[in-house]
Amino acid sequence: MQGHHFIALTLSVALIAGCQSNRPTRTPQPLPTPADNSVQGTPVGDDRTAMEAAIDTGPASGSGPSSEGQAGGLVMNPNAPDSYVVKRGDTLWGIAKVFLRDPWYWPEIWQVNPQVQNPHLIYPGDTLRLVYIEGRPQILLQRGDSARVEPRIRSEPFEGAITTIPYQSVAAFMSKPSVLSKEQIKTAPYVLASRDMHVVAAEGDTLYARGFTGPVDPGTHYNVVHVGEALRDPDDNSILGYDGVFTGAGHITRGGDPATLLMTESAYETEPGDKLFAGGVEVPLDFIPSPPKDKINGRIIAVSHGVTVIGQYEVVVINRGARDGLMPGNVLAVYLAGDKISDTANRGFFGSMTRIFSTKVRLPDERSGTFMVFKTFDNLSYGLIMEATDLIRVGDRVENP
Asked: Is 343 helix (H, G, I), strand (E, B) or coil?
C-alpha cells in the first residue's frame, strides 16, 4: 500500500512540473496610465506623504534647466509623478516638492479650476495630475469622491484642508510666543494684580486683567507671557522685539474691566504687567509659497525654545518685515556666513609664524536651508525652517531664493 502511495505522489509531482514547464513566461505588465496621453511620470500610489516621497526619491537635479517642463526659473523634479493622491499629514510645501525642484514656484504650475469653490484648498483624497499644455507643465485638481462642506471663513485653517506648512509647529509657537514684537506688546491685554494681592501668582490663583479690545467671554483660554530682554537688529542695534517667557495659562471666569482669570497651569511665576495671548492660532495658513517681490537681505535674530542649532520646522525670527515688502508665504534662502581665514598657503615653513601679518580672506557664504514667512510685523517676521541641509544658527543670513 505504501508503495502505491509513493508511486502516486511521484506521478503528481511530475505532472505539476510538466505543467509549469509548459506555462508561457509572463512579462511584467506596465502600471495603468490615465487616458490623457499628455500625462508624464510615474504615479505615487503608496502610503507615504508628499514630503516622505520627495525625501525618498532624493533631491532633484540642479545641474541645469531641463529641456522639458522648463518655464523661466521653473525646473520640474525629474522624479515628478503623473498623479498624486493627497494624504492626511501632507503639506502644500511637501506636495510642491514632489513636482518641483524649487517648491516656491508652485503658483506657476497650479491650474486654477473655476468650477471648484476655493480651488487653493486641497483635501486628503484629492488627486493632483501633472499634464503638459502647449509644452508647459500644469497641475490639475480632481476632487475626491467624498462630499465636503467648506466652513465659514476664520483665522484657523479650513477644517480638513492641507495647510502650506505644518499646523502644529505654528500653533504651538503662536499660542505660546517666545518672541514678542512691539506691536504685540502694545496691543495685548495684561495682568493687573492677583486676588490676594500676591506679588507673584501661580496655579490655582485668581488674576485680574485689563487691556482687552472687546468683551471677553467666560471660558476663553489665555496664555500668560512675561516680556523679557530686548532683541536688537544686528545691522543698526535698534530694538525689534523682546524675548517672551511663557509663565502659565488660565481661562476667563468673569468678564468686565478688569476681567477675572483663573490660573490652571503654571510654568514660572506670573507678575503684574505680564501679557495675555489667546490660545488659538492668529494667522491663516492657506497662503501659497512665493518668492518676495522685493530684494531681501536680512538675518535670523532669534529662535523659539532657545535652541542653538536650528533644524527643520523650527520657528525663527528675522529682522525684516512688512515695511521691507515681506508677506506670509514668502520663501527665503538661508546662508551660513563664510569664515574669515588667514592666507598662509604660500608662506612655506614660516606660514604659521606670520599668520598675524597674513591677508584675511572671507570664504563664500554657503546655502544651508530654506525659510518660509508665516506672520509679518513692521520690522520683523516669524517663519519656519522648511529645509535644513546644514547647521543653521542665529545670525545666519537670509535672502531671496
From this structure: strand
Quick one: 214 exposed, middle or buried, by C-beta within 10 A (0-12, 13-18, 19+)?
exposed
Residue 277 has which C-alpha cell? 495671548
Would you identify the CATH topology of the domain 297-399? Thrombin, subunit H (2.40.10)
Domain boundaries, the chain: 50-142, 171-278, 297-399
d(CA 74, CA 104): 9
CA distance 36 to 341: 58
Query: Is residue 66 a contact partner of residue 75, using CB atoms and an 8 Å limit?
Result: yes
**pLDDT at position 182:** 86
Contacts of 327 (CB under 8 A, 6+ apart): 292, 373, 376
Contact at 8 Å (CB) between 107 and 290? yes
Mean pLDDT of the chain: 75
Per-residue confidence (pLDDT) for residue 307, from 0 to 100: 65
Q: How does DSSP assign 205-262, residue by residue?
A: -EEEEE--SS---TT-EEEEEEEEEEEE-TTT--EEEEEEEEEEEEEEEE-SSSEEEE
CA distance 257 to 336: 50
pTM above 0.70, yes or no: no
DSSP state of 306: G
Of the candidates 138, 60, 53, which has an alpha carbon nearest to the alpha carbon of residue 87? 53
Confidence band for 24, pLDDT divided at 50, 70 and 90:
very low
Residues 6+ apart with CB under 8 A from 293: 325
- Number of C-alpha atoms within 13 angstroms, CB side, residue 117? 7
pLDDT tens digits for range 310-357: 888 888 999 999 999 999 989 999 998 877 877 777 665 555 555 566
Mean pLDDT of 9-18: 38
